């Protein structure tokens, strides 16, 4: 894979993880880690090591953000609710 494309893809992965993290301190930490790994990869020419260190970072931050902010203790609404059935039938009619 081309190095420029890989940096482009990793930037958008980092950007999407950044937008999902609700805590400002965790966001700052993630940005600092990402920038440090980018500098390690570019300045020291250790791209493979920087990528291998970067891969677990977004996964860990996503799991942490999900457990702290997005996990819901409330019971979910039934799948077969009235609104779901109305949308399901509307899509079925639109397909016909």
Helix and strand element order: HHHHH
Overall pLDDT level: 81
pLDDT < 50 stretches:
none
Task: Choose one word for the global shape.
Answer: elongated
Q: So how many helices?
A: 5
Decide which structural class fits the backbone.
Answer: mainly alpha
Note the beta-strand portion.
Answer: under 5%
Number of β-strand runs: 0
Distance between the termini: 43 Å
The whole-angstrom Rg is 20 Å
What proportion of the residues is helical, as a percent range? over 70%
Overall structural domain count:
1
**Biggest sheet descriptor:** none
Describe this structure in words.
The chain is mainly α. It has one domain (3-95). The protein has five helices and no strands. The chain has helices at residues 3-20, 24-43, 47-54, 56-70, 82-95. α2 packs antiparallel against α3 (47-54). The longest helix is centred in the middle third of the chain and has 20 residues, at 24-43. The model has no long low-confidence stretch (mean pLDDT 81).
